[in-house]
């Protein structure tokens, strides 16, 4: 009699587990139905995105749209590096944060929004400033890096560390009504230092100019697309090209680049 009860309990548990798995799978297929329906992605591509990890350095104007789109697309692990607090002047462009988030850690505020959008993914909060002390250890945990920073020091550091670790990255930058972006496959395509060899002088008390929030909106979205294309291995990456977005004339310029043999990072001389 006891054996019979055990058997019934076992069958019940098995059935419940199977039902739960079916529900999760159908939820998964439903969430990503529009993506899975495209032959270039399909279930196989969706699985690639689920197992991919992307590091976004900066949870501000560029990082916000990049993170939103990567989370909605189902990138399984998103890392966010930022040690700033949300300020009132951030809100015209940093759309991950709201008025209720003022004075909160940006990584915490961002992670909440991304989890609300997609609870199935992992958000890793790196509540620290990206610096030479932690850069390698952070970057090497991920498949692809998005430079969503707002200062030259970090941009050059990202270029150097990604070259050293051979982790591909996308650079993004904005100023007033202009934006620019390029993707780098270290050792193979032109890098950030091939073009901008040394950081320009930054004045400590300079008043930041812009940007209008829509400009990082456009560039950050392209950055997310570059990461997704890299993960799926589809299309042509924005390599050996610097895409310049001029929002006032609504024009995109494609500046062709070649590797600089005298580049201080990837040069062969
Ligand atoms: Zn280079």
Order of strands in the sheet with the most strands?
Answer: 3-2-1-4-5-6-7-8
If you average the pLDDT, what whole number results?
93
**Could you tell me how far the N terminus lies from the C terminus, measured between alpha carbons in angstroms?**
82 Å
Could you state the oligomeric state of the chains shown?
A: single chain
Please tell me about this protein's structure:
By secondary structure, the protein is an alpha/beta fold. It has a single domain, classed as NAD(P)-binding Rossmann-like Domain (Rossmann fold). Helices cover 40% and strands 17% of the residues. The chain has nine helices and eight strands. It has helices at 2-31, 33-36, 42-50, 63-73, 106-117, 135-139, 152-165, 192-195, 214-232, and strands at 53-57, 77-81, 122-126, 144-147, 169-175, 178-184, 241-246, 251-256. It has an eight-stranded mixed beta sheet, with helices on both faces. Strand 1, helix 4 and strand 2 form a beta-alpha-beta unit. The longest helix has 30 residues, at 2-31. The chain is globular and about 85 Å long. The mean pLDDT is 93. The chain binds zinc ion. Zinc ion binds at residues 191, 193-194, 260, 263, 265-266.
């Amino acid at each position: 009699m006891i054996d019979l009860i055990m058997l019934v309990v076992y069958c019940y548990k098995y059935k419940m587990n199977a039902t739960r798995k079916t529900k999760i799978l159908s939820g998964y297929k439903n969430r990503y139905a529009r993506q899975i329906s495209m032959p270039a992605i399909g279930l196989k591509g969706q699985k690639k995105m689920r197992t991919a990890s992307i590091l976004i350095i900066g949870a501000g104007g560029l990082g916000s749209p990049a993170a939103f789109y990567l989370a909605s697309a189902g990138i399984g692990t998103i890392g966010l590096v930022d040690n700033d607090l949300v300020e009132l002047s951030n809100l015209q462009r940093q759309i991950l944060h709201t008025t209720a988030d003022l004075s909160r850690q940006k990584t915490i505020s961002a992670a909440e929004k991304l989890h609300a959008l997609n609870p199935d993914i992992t958000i890793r909060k790196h509540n620290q400033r990206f610096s030479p002390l932690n850069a390698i250890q952070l970057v090497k945990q991920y498949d692809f890096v998005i430079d969503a920073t707002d200062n030259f020091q970090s941009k050059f550091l990202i270029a150097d560390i990604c070259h050293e670790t051979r982790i591909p990255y996308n650079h993004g930058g904005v100023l007033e009504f202009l934006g620019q972006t390029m993707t780098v496959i270290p050792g193979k395509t032109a890098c950030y230092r091939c073009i901008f060899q040394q950081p320009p002088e930054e004045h400590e008390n300079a008043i930041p100019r812009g940007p209008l929030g829509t400009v990082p909106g456009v560039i950050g979205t392209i950055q997310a697309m570059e990461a997704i294309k890299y993960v799926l291995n589809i299309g042509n990456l924005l390599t050996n090209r610097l895409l310049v977005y001029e929002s006032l004339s609504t024009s995109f310029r494609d500046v062709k680049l070649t590797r600089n043999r005298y580049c201080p990072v990837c040069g062969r001389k």
